[in-house]
Amino acid sequence: MDTVTRLNLDPPESPSLRVAFLSLWFVDMVAATLFFVVPYANELNPITVLFFDYLGFSGVPLAATLYALIIMGIGHILSHPRDIQFIGLIVALYALLVVNNVLLLLSGEPLVAVIGV
Protein backbone atom coordinates (compact mmCIF):
# COMPACT_ATOMS: atom_id res chain seq x y z
CA MET A 1 0.00 0.00 0.00
CA ASP A 2 2.93 2.35 0.60
CA THR A 3 3.92 2.09 -3.07
CA VAL A 4 0.49 3.32 -4.20
CA THR A 5 0.65 6.18 -1.70
CA ARG A 6 4.10 7.21 -2.89
CA LEU A 7 2.96 7.31 -6.52
CA ASN A 8 0.38 9.94 -5.53
CA LEU A 9 -2.47 8.44 -7.55
CA ASP A 10 -5.40 10.80 -7.85
CA PRO A 11 -8.04 11.00 -10.57
CA PRO A 12 -8.47 14.20 -12.59
CA GLU A 13 -10.87 16.50 -10.78
CA SER A 14 -13.26 16.77 -13.71
CA PRO A 15 -15.99 14.12 -13.58
CA SER A 16 -17.51 15.45 -16.82
CA LEU A 17 -14.24 14.89 -18.69
CA ARG A 18 -13.99 11.37 -17.28
CA VAL A 19 -17.58 10.60 -18.35
CA ALA A 20 -16.91 12.09 -21.80
CA PHE A 21 -13.78 9.96 -22.15
CA LEU A 22 -15.51 6.74 -21.12
CA SER A 23 -18.52 7.45 -23.36
CA LEU A 24 -16.38 8.20 -26.41
CA TRP A 25 -14.12 5.25 -25.62
CA PHE A 26 -17.15 2.93 -25.56
CA VAL A 27 -18.45 4.19 -28.93
CA ASP A 28 -14.96 3.84 -30.40
CA MET A 29 -14.69 0.28 -29.06
CA VAL A 30 -18.04 -0.67 -30.64
CA ALA A 31 -17.00 0.93 -33.94
CA ALA A 32 -13.66 -0.91 -33.87
CA THR A 33 -15.53 -4.18 -33.33
CA LEU A 34 -17.84 -3.43 -36.26
CA PHE A 35 -14.83 -2.76 -38.51
CA PHE A 36 -14.18 -6.51 -38.40
CA VAL A 37 -17.75 -7.19 -39.59
CA VAL A 38 -18.30 -4.75 -42.45
CA PRO A 39 -16.48 -5.44 -45.71
CA TYR A 40 -15.73 -1.80 -46.61
CA ALA A 41 -13.84 -0.67 -43.50
CA ASN A 42 -10.74 -1.95 -41.74
CA GLU A 43 -9.36 -1.44 -38.27
CA LEU A 44 -5.98 0.26 -38.65
CA ASN A 45 -4.65 -0.12 -35.11
CA PRO A 46 -2.14 -3.00 -35.29
CA ILE A 47 -2.54 -3.88 -31.59
CA THR A 48 -6.30 -4.24 -31.94
CA VAL A 49 -5.83 -6.33 -35.10
CA LEU A 50 -3.30 -8.54 -33.28
CA PHE A 51 -5.70 -9.07 -30.36
CA PHE A 52 -8.49 -9.86 -32.85
CA ASP A 53 -6.29 -12.36 -34.69
CA TYR A 54 -5.45 -14.21 -31.47
CA LEU A 55 -8.70 -13.87 -29.49
CA GLY A 56 -11.39 -13.15 -32.05
CA PHE A 57 -14.04 -10.56 -31.27
CA SER A 58 -13.31 -10.68 -27.55
CA GLY A 59 -9.82 -9.36 -28.31
CA VAL A 60 -11.20 -6.02 -29.54
CA PRO A 61 -12.79 -4.95 -26.24
CA LEU A 62 -9.78 -6.37 -24.40
CA ALA A 63 -7.42 -4.16 -26.43
CA ALA A 64 -9.74 -1.18 -25.93
CA THR A 65 -9.85 -1.84 -22.19
CA LEU A 66 -6.06 -1.90 -22.03
CA TYR A 67 -5.95 1.48 -23.82
CA ALA A 68 -8.47 2.92 -21.36
CA LEU A 69 -6.52 1.60 -18.37
CA ILE A 70 -3.31 3.14 -19.68
CA ILE A 71 -5.01 6.50 -20.27
CA MET A 72 -6.71 6.47 -16.88
CA GLY A 73 -3.44 5.46 -15.23
CA ILE A 74 -1.62 8.38 -16.84
CA GLY A 75 -4.41 10.72 -15.73
CA HIS A 76 -4.07 9.45 -12.16
CA ILE A 77 -0.30 9.94 -12.10
CA LEU A 78 -0.21 13.45 -13.61
CA SER A 79 -0.57 16.36 -11.24
CA HIS A 80 -3.26 18.99 -11.47
CA PRO A 81 -3.77 20.78 -13.95
CA ARG A 82 -1.77 18.52 -16.29
CA ASP A 83 -4.16 15.64 -15.60
CA ILE A 84 -7.17 17.64 -16.80
CA GLN A 85 -5.24 18.89 -19.85
CA PHE A 86 -4.21 15.33 -20.72
CA ILE A 87 -7.73 13.92 -20.36
CA GLY A 88 -9.12 16.90 -22.32
CA LEU A 89 -6.67 16.18 -25.14
CA ILE A 90 -7.63 12.49 -25.13
CA VAL A 91 -11.35 13.40 -25.19
CA ALA A 92 -10.74 15.67 -28.21
CA LEU A 93 -8.77 12.90 -29.95
CA TYR A 94 -11.43 10.29 -29.21
CA ALA A 95 -14.16 12.68 -30.40
CA LEU A 96 -12.39 13.02 -33.74
CA LEU A 97 -11.87 9.26 -34.00
CA VAL A 98 -15.47 8.51 -33.07
CA VAL A 99 -16.88 10.97 -35.62
CA ASN A 100 -14.62 9.47 -38.29
CA ASN A 101 -15.43 5.87 -37.35
CA VAL A 102 -19.19 6.39 -37.16
CA LEU A 103 -19.22 8.25 -40.50
CA LEU A 104 -17.13 5.48 -42.02
CA LEU A 105 -19.51 2.81 -40.75
CA LEU A 106 -22.67 4.69 -41.78
CA SER A 107 -21.61 6.10 -45.14
CA GLY A 108 -18.56 4.08 -46.11
CA GLU A 109 -16.56 7.34 -46.32
CA PRO A 110 -14.06 8.70 -43.78
CA LEU A 111 -14.39 12.19 -42.28
CA VAL A 112 -11.85 13.76 -44.65
CA ALA A 113 -13.84 12.55 -47.67
CA VAL A 114 -17.15 13.78 -46.22
CA ILE A 115 -15.88 17.30 -45.51
CA GLY A 116 -13.97 17.38 -48.79
CA VAL A 117 -10.44 17.91 -47.51
From TrEMBL:
<keyword id="KW-0472">Membrane</keyword>
<protein>
    <submittedName>
        <fullName>Uncharacterized protein</fullName>
    </submittedName>
</protein>
<keyword id="KW-1133">Transmembrane helix</keyword>
<feature type="transmembrane region" description="Helical">
    <location>
        <begin position="54"/>
        <end position="78"/>
    </location>
</feature>
<feature type="transmembrane region" description="Helical">
    <location>
        <begin position="20"/>
        <end position="42"/>
    </location>
</feature>
<feature type="transmembrane region" description="Helical">
    <location>
        <begin position="84"/>
        <end position="106"/>
    </location>
</feature>
<keyword id="KW-0812">Transmembrane</keyword>
